[in-house]
From TrEMBL:
It comes from Marinococcus halophilus. Catalyzes the first step in the biosynthesis of NAD from nicotinic acid, the ATP-dependent synthesis of beta-nicotinate D-ribonucleotide from nicotinate and 5-phospho-D-ribose 1-phosphate. It catalyses: 5-phospho-alpha-D-ribose 1-diphosphate + nicotinate + ATP + H2O = nicotinate beta-D-ribonucleotide + ADP + phosphate + diphosphate. Residues 156-337 form the Nicotinate/nicotinamide phosphoribosyltransferase domain. Pathway: Cofactor biosynthesis; NAD(+) biosynthesis; nicotinate D-ribonucleotide from nicotinate: step 1/1. One of its GO terms (biological process) is NAD+ biosynthetic process via the salvage pathway. InterPro entries: Aldolase_TIM (IPR013785), N/Namide_PRibTrfase (IPR041525), NAPRTase_C (IPR041619), NAPRTase_N (IPR040727), Nic_PRibTrfase-Fam (IPR007229), Nic_PRibTrfase_pncB (IPR006405), Nicotinate_pribotase-like_C (IPR036068). This is Nicotinate phosphoribosyltransferase. Its EC number is 6.3.4.21. Transiently phosphorylated on a His residue during the reaction cycle. Phosphorylation strongly increases the affinity for substrates and increases the rate of nicotinate D-ribonucleotide production. Dephosphorylation regenerates the low-affinity form of the enzyme, leading to product release. It comes from the Bacteria. Pfam families: NAPRTase, NAPRTase_C, NAPRTase_N. It is an enzyme of class 6 (ligase). GO terms for cellular component: cytosol.
């Protein structure tokens, strides 16, 4: 039982955030303008690209951000003073948010989302934003990775709900799977809440509940027009497929015999045999659905064995991000208003002995552009600039690796597309959330921008995410300033 009844998410944060905000407020720093970047460092699953998801929930969260009476009562109980609670009571999100569109193809070390807000607000929302974007982007990326191997004509179906890490992950995971390209979900609530296409077959329990498998299929067919029969409860080829065919023949035009589902055994062999049997019986349009611990590796392998599988049902390994359960996105302060009311770039160096530039944050208010080659229509890479830079006004771009700077190229004939949409401006929502179908279509329409080398599932090439010379120099200069301060 919960001790409080409301469904406020405003305390969906870590205690240290509240304590920092109290400190800022008591010192009068809470209203200073701050800029935070939200980004991950490394692509998950060894994939060559990521798929951004989580924005819709971030928007809902920020729009509804206010401390309820129960939030305040809890904080009062925890010992916070009435004066600070009065500040929290009035607190709303008044800042600006710039973010990638959901479904955007994304890469390491580029801001997926940028928050410009009074320090107190920007700090208090950090944990929730990371929580939402980390999980949803991880699952959307896993889904896209699986879709890359099922191919255009192999349907991917999300079966994950029962295996997800609790209710929220089940709901938002199904949505993320759709963002990443899954065609359909078994999750009825996700269908209701987000309008996702749903579909389903039946379980072994229905077959077990009847005296015989034939009786179970027949009973289902008598009450449903669209029928997919699960054929592996007893013996797939000797009992399951023949019973499915028998019922379909008996029911004739009264049903649409959509397919059979295989959930165990040698899926390559069984699918080929089932296909042969269905075709011989004249059911050439009937599909074969496979499930049972599938992921991109088993699917690739099954396809290489010539498996006759049309639809892939994927649960556990999709919804839990099984082989990499965390994306590791972070939220870092990159600029803050100083005593003189001017913005000051900030940087975190960290305790790395190696002086690894990669782990250091990139200071400054920045934009991210995708550099599209206007001749071959492919992306040359992403290009992170300082605010105010306008790459489209340049004749030629110098793109170089931000750590191994000798890896460089000059790009002409390009179009630089700003990847950040303005979502909130001074607390006001100025972005209309696209439909789920548009989000998925947007993701798919962007895939041709990437060379195949970035999209292969095994050992893809590293897609360039470069800093503009000004952004890079600013970073190096800031690093030297910090180092000099300590060597004096
Ligand atoms: N031809 C195949 N080649 C490679 N992997 C396969 C093939 N057929 C099935 N698999 C995969 O191998 C694993 C099969 O594991 P296992 O034999 O333990 O379970 P199962 O046959 O699905 O039966 P059960 O559901 O009773 O566990 C699953 O992950 C399945 O997706
Ligand atoms: O294997 P996953 O990728 O996680 O996909 C979800 C699994 O959930 C069901 O099995 P379960 O044993 O839970 O129920 P059942 O009795 O209907 O087979 C289904 O048959 C899949 O095998
Ligand atoms: O509809 C199905 O076949 C289904 C749904 C959830 C999990 N496993 C299978």
């Amino acid at each position: 039982m919960t001790r409080y009844e409301d469904d406020s998410l405003s305390l969906h944060t870590d205690l240290y955030q509240v304590n920092m905000v109290e400190t800022y407020w008591r010192s009068g720093m809470h209203t200073r303008n701050a800029v935070f970047d939200l980004y991950f460092r490394e692509l998950p699953f060894g994939n060559g690209f990521g798929v951004f998801a989580g924005l819709e929930r971030v928007v809902n969260f920020l729009e509804n951000f206010r401390m309820t009476e129960e939030d305040l009562a809890y904080l009062r109980e925890a010992g916070y003073g009435e004066d600070f609670l009065s500040y929290l009571e009035e607190l709303r999100f008044t800042g600006s948010v710039y973010a990638m569109k959901e479904g955007e193809l994304v890469f390491g070390n580029e801001p997926l989302l940028k928050v410009e807000a009074p320090l107190g607000e920007a700090q208090l929302i950090e944990t929730a934003l990371l929580n939402m974007v980390n999980y949803q982007t991880l699952i959307a990326t896993k889904a896209a990775r699986i879709k890359q191997v099922t191919g255009g004509n192999g349907r991917a179906m999300d079966f994950g709900l029962r295996r997800a890490q609790e209710l929220d992950a089940g709901l938002w995971g199904s949505r993320a799977a759709f963002v990443g390209g899954f065609e359909v979900t078994s999750n009825v609530r996700a269908g209701k809440v987000f309008g996702l296409p749903t579909a389903g077959t039946h379980a072994h329990s229905m077959v077990q509940a009847c005296e015989t498998e034939y009786e179970a299929f027949k009973m289902y067919a008598e009450h449903h027009t669209d029928c997919v029969f699960l054929v592996d409860t007893y013996d797939t080829l000797r009992s399951g497929v023949p019973n499915a065919i028998k019922v379909a023949e008996e029911m004739g035009e009264n049903i649409r015999f959509k397919g059979v589902r295989l959930d165990s055994g040698d899926l390559a062999y069984l699918s080929k045999e089932a296909r042969r049997m269905l075709d011989e019986a004249g059911f050439t349009d009937t599909q074969i659905i496979a499930s049972g611990d599938l992921d991109e590796y088993t699917i690739t392998n099954l396809k290489s064995q010539g498996a006759e599988i049309d639809t892939w049902g994927i649960g556990t390994k999709l919804i839990t991000g099984y082989d990499q359960p965390a994306l590791g996105a972070v939220y870092k302060l990159v600029a803050i208003e100083g005593d003189n009311a001017r913005m000051r770039d900030t940087m975190k160096i960290g305790a790395k002995k190696s002086g690894n530039l990669e782990k250091m944050t990139t200071p400054g208010v920045k934009n991210v552009y995708r550099i599209i080659n206007t001749e071959n229509k492919r992306s040359e890479g992403d290009y992170v600039t300082l605010a105010g830079e306008e790459p489209n006004e340049q004749e030629e771009l110098h793109m170089f690796h931000p750590v191994h700077t000798y890896i460089s190229k000059k790009v002409r004939n390009f179009k630089a597309v700003n990847l950040h949409e303005t979502i909130f401006k001074d607390g006001k929502l100025v972005y209309s959330l696209p439909s789920m179908a548009d989000i998925q279509a947007y993701m798919q329409s962007n895939l041709p921008l990437l060379w195949e080398e970035y999209k292969r599932s095994l050992n893809p090439e590293e897609y360039p995410v470069d800093l503009s010379p000004k952004c890079w120099e600013n970073k190096v200069q800031k690093m030297h300033e910090i180092q000099n301060e300590f060597s004096q």
